[in-house]
Structure formats: C-alpha cells, structure tokens
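Appendix B.2, paired examples.
Example (i):
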Amino acid sequence: MTGNQHPRIRELKFTLRRIFRNPSAIIGFALLFVFVAVAVLAPYIAPPKYAHNPYMMPHKGYSPTPKPPSATNIFGTTSGQYDIFYGAVWGTRTAFKIGLFVIGVALLIGVALGIISGYYGGIVDEIIMRIVDIIFAVPLLVLTMAIVVAFGRGLDKVMIALALVKWRDYVRVMRSSILTLRELDYVEAARIMGVSNIKIMIRHILPNGIYPVLVMASMDIGSMVIVAAFMSFIGLGAPKGYADWGQMVALARNYIVGPADD
C-alpha cells in the first residue's frame, strides 16, 4: 500500500511523523489548538454584552483602581473596571484577525511582485527591487507608526499599515526562488510550447517557489500580533475598552511594577 501512495502523501506522512516526535512541536500545536478553540468559542465562553460591538469589554463603574477576582469578574477588572476575562477571551479573536489579515495581504502583494520581478528581470526587476530597498531603509515599527500617525489612529489603520510594510520581506524571498526556477527545463519547455507567461508563473513556478515564503509567513503571524499590541499600548491602535491584548496591558501600565500608591 505504501508503494502505491502518491509521493506528496508519503512526504506529508513523513513530515508529520517527524513533527510529532518533537516535544516542542507537540507543545506548540497544543497551544495553537487552545487559542483557536478559545477564539472560535468566544461567544459561548464570554457572551458579549454589546451585541452590536462584541469586542468592547463590559465594565461597571469608572474607578481607576483594579479589583481582584470575584464571582462576577473571575479574572478581576482593569483600571476603568473593564472585565479582564472577557478581554482575554475576545482578545484571542483580535489577535487572529490581526495576524491573518496582515500576513494575508502582505503575502498577496509580496508574492505577486516577487514573481513578476524574478521572472521578467531587467528594468522591471530593477524598479521593484529599488522600491523594496527604499522601504527596507526604514525599520518596520518606525514606518508603521509613521503611516498610522499620517492616516489616523485605530486598529484597522494599524493592520493596513503593517500589511503595507511587511510585504517587502516576501518580495525578496519569492524573487530568489523564481530566479532559480525560471531557468529549469520544464519552464523552458512550457515557453517553447507557447504557454503564456501568466500561466507559466501561476501553474509552473508559483507552486514550486512559494514554500519558503509560506514558512516565513507562518512564523511572522505572531510577530505581527506583538507589533499591533505595542501600537495599542502606546495609544495608536485599539481604542480604550477594546478587547485587545495590547490595550489590556496599557490599562494595567500603572500596576505592572507594583501598586500605584507604593
């Protein structure tokens, strides 16, 4: 039976066996499963108080002093009396929304430009890569902050700004793969047979060159969540009371080291 299996299926099974023999990989998948489960079941774990905006944390009162866990608020409340448990649960959804949106948009832009740059070369390659070099001259966080300040604060602006900056990483990786693949025999054979450049890039080059970019993108999802949380922490991202992990840290900034009156 094993000999009759498709090579890709055999390779997938071999990869999965190696992954699940690694204790670190098992722990990582378990944590990912927990976060996904919390995000999917958020409406049942922490039923929203505001149906029109479930991401707003419920609060009762405006006292600047956090309160300890109680029967009503099992994780306690933040400064401003926002429910910490609700923010932690719905903040998981916010984290996935940020990571998937930013990386998804950045991948579309980066992969498309990387294929065009690597396949056509010449002046097209020079123009695209010089633009990438200019964007790389400014650190990601600084450039993101500049875009958000220029176009207005808000979590949606942060997500768009991150996507408009992060694509630069994927262009270079995709281009390097295309430069090798475009010279292979099967690509040359497709050209000789009269296959259009678009079909060659989509059907023959993209499936074989995108794997390094996908691995890189999967590792970047978490870092984008951290950057967005930092933007919320400094007041450029989510508004006060929004279920966002960075916003929750910002509400507790006066109590990170110790009580404010110490």
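Example (ii):
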Amino acid sequence: DVFIEWAYVSYQLTPETVVNAGRFRLPLFYYSDFLDAAYAYHWIRPPADTYGIPASTITGVNVVNTHYFNSVGLTTQIWYGAETDDAEDVTVDITKSQGINVMVEYEWMRLRGVYHTLMVGIDPKPLLVNTPGGLIQVDPEASNTDITYKAAAFMIDYESILWRSEYTEVDNGEKEKSGYVSLGYQFGTLTPHYTYSQYEAVEEKQTHTIGLRWDFKPAAALKVEYSNFHYESEGGSTLIGPVEADEYRSELLSVALDFIF
C-alpha cells in the first residue's frame, strides 16, 4: 500500500492569490511547509516538545494570499478539509477541519498567528475478550471531540542574530500547551545556538538543546546537537491514549548532514 503525505494541485487565481486542492500539510507551525527540508533551519530537527503531534495532513482546499503594503508583507491562508485513518483497532475521522493562518513581515521580523478548529471522531472496532465463560465480543462506544488549536510565532533575523519562538495551545476539554525559544548567532559559516522547549498537559516535558551548524558548502551543512530531556507525568489520559505516572531524564547527542540540490 502506498501512503502519500502530499498530493495537491495549485491554481494561480490572481498574481497575489493561489488556490491549492488535494492532500496537504496543515500550516500549524512556522516550519510546517518545509519541515522535511532540514537545511532550511538551524536545528537537526525542530523542537519535538512543540512539533510532536500525531497528525498534520488533511485532504481539502486552501487559499493563500500575499500582499505588500509598502515594506510590510501580509500573508493569509485559510483552509477546510477532512481526513480518515482506518487503523487495525480503531477508525479516526477528522471532520470540519478549518482554520486561518496570518503572517506579518517587516524588515527583519515576522509575526504569525494560527486559529484552527476540527472535530475528531473515534470509533473503536469490536474486541474479543477472554472471560471465564469464554470469548465474548465487546463493542466500545464511539466518541466525538471538538478541538480548538491556537498558535503564535515571533521570528527575528537581525544582522547575525537569529531568534525563533513559537507557542501552541490545544483545547479538547483539557488544555495542552507547548512552546520554545531559540537563540543563535552567525559567525561566518558557523551558527552556535541554544533552545529551550516545554510541553504541559497530563505530563510535562522540558528540553535544553545546544548545537552548532557549519555551512561548509553553499548547499550543505553539518550539524551537531546535544539535548537534555526531563519528563514527568502524574498519569491520566490524552488525545493519544492513557499516560502512566512516570519521571525520567535522558540525554541525546545527534549529528546530521543536510544538503540541497
């Protein structure tokens, strides 16, 4: 079976407006459109505390408009779509997925805001349960949840200073919050950087990352990163299932070579 993450057609409606129809990635984050092109950002991977979501694609239509008011650029994107994931033990239907993404650019800074709503229907498939009286079939009830997603970003590229920051909030009856701040400085072909990211819900995650990017070729970059993770959970349930009480710390050293051609 072939799984296609992106497959859409585009039509240039006006010089400033493009209409896309098909299967596309939701613009939930600043780096959503070029998440797979790691050369475009200074990390090896964007902060997982913020970017680690279970689903990010939708089938539908979106409209992108870009307009400049002298030196101020305004990009607006709206979308509507649906998606179905038929797994072995559950069927997940995403319906009424609609939202707006607005970004303002002025010289060396960019401001971005996202508002997204959707309905998630979860229909567990019948299960066979072994009881003292033998096997019985259990048919769990289906459920529907309305979800609201909000996000904001503030980005700076001022001379040699690089600043990245994003904040997200998911409300499905219980709030899940995440965000990060990242600071880098370019010394010629070298860009050392530091990132702090955090996730808060039933569990809490905190990550400190220091790294170095070396652009040793015009289209190639070598990256090295060290991350220190702290995870703590009191137990409970989230959108992706139950979470047991737990706490641990871990470290990760990563090396990557990114290039474009």
